[in-house]
Amino acid sequence: MVAVAAMTETNNRKVLYLTESTFNFSQINPSSTLVDKYKPDLPPGVYHTSLGDLAIDEIIQVAVQFDSVEFEPKGFDPSSTIYKETISLYRFLSGKINGVGDIEQFTEHPLINSRSGNSMLWVFGCSHSHGVGLRPTEKNYGQHLAEELELPVNLITKPGSSLYWSYRHLFNSDIKENDIVIWQLTTPGRVSKFNGKHVQEIVLNNSTDRKLVDSITHEQLYFNQLSLLNTGVRYLRKVGCRFVIISISDFCAGYDYVSEYIKYPEYCSNFGLHLDYGTDKIHAGPLSHKAIAQRLLTRV
């Protein structure tokens, strides 16, 4: 009865089940149709296939026409290779077809999926964008800019975070074409490190992990920083939103990265805008944040 009801609920939908090749799926759904070769434009209904009926690439090819992909565990030996391969395929297709699944995004900020209007401002960055050093009544540059633009703002920021962190959050945020994005580039000497359970943000200059520090060369940092910058910019251009890239502070003349940053017309220099310091005597103060917002306003 449950299987028949499930079939009725599909109506005009197409559902594909991944099964064990010798398992009789009619026990689960007698109306299901076996897919043992690629067929385009299948009519609505319930279907099933397995890695014994089709190769992995064939299943991926046929699965894109389905509304959802499900996994049927009955008949599998959980310790078998075919079980592990089918689970891996299901996880891949769950993210690709269903748009859900247990794919880890390694994000932690709650606002990445939050929207409060047709157009909004997004700010991604570290402590400089977060407003460390400002008093509770003082605004950071993102808040100043949001007021000038009369837009709601999502501040996706974390003190001490790396470009890896902001890139992951930027890429997984619900950014739309009508939005404005400010992406603050932090120092290259920060990396994300996975400890097996959680992602840690590491400042290499302060790290006691000599194995980690000694394994990352200046050339590797340069490659990592520019790879993230290049792919992030391509993504934002593909979305079609307006965006500006800024650096965390004034650069000295010999800084290795600035010559690459300025190749992007979206890059906005911070030079000369550090007018004061915050309460920690390290980060920008309220006058500096307001000046940064005014410069950004001319670019967006």
Keywords:
300 residues, alpha/beta, Rossmann fold, 2 domains, 4-stranded parallel beta sheet, 10 helices, 11 strands, 17% strand
Report on this structure.
The longest helix has 22 residues. The protein is 34% helix and 17% strand. Helix 5 crosses helix 10. The radius of gyration is 25 Å and the shape is elongated. With 300 residues, it is an alpha/beta fold. Strand 8 and strand 9 form a beta hairpin. The strands form 3 sheets. Strands 6-5-7-10-11 form a 5-stranded parallel beta sheet, sandwiched between helices. Strands 2-3-1-4 form a 4-stranded parallel beta sheet. It has 2 domains: 97 residues, no CATH class; 188 residues, SGNH hydrolase (Rossmann fold, 3-Layer(aba) Sandwich).
CATH homolog superfamily of the largest domain = SGNH hydrolase
User: How many separate domains make up the residues?
Assistant: 2
Q: Low-confidence segments, ≥5 residues, pLDDT <50?
A: 1-10
Q: How far apart are the first and last residues' alpha carbons, in Å?
A: 58 Å
Mean pLDDT: 88
The major beta sheet can be summarized as:
5 strands, parallel
At CATH level 2, the architecture of the largest domain is 3-Layer(aba) Sandwich
Would you list the SSEs in sequence order as H and E?
A: HEEEHEHEHHEHEEEHHEHEH
| Computed Rg | 25 Å
Q: Find the CATH topology of the largest domain.
A: Rossmann fold
Q: Please give the number of β-strands.
A: 11
Beta-strand percentage range: 15-25%
Using the alpha-carbon principal axes, give the shape. elongated
The percentage helix is: 25-40%
Structural class based on helices, strands and sheet pairing:
alpha/beta
Briefly, what CATH class of the largest domain? Answer: Alpha Beta
The strands making up the biggest β-sheet line up spatially as 6-5-7-10-11
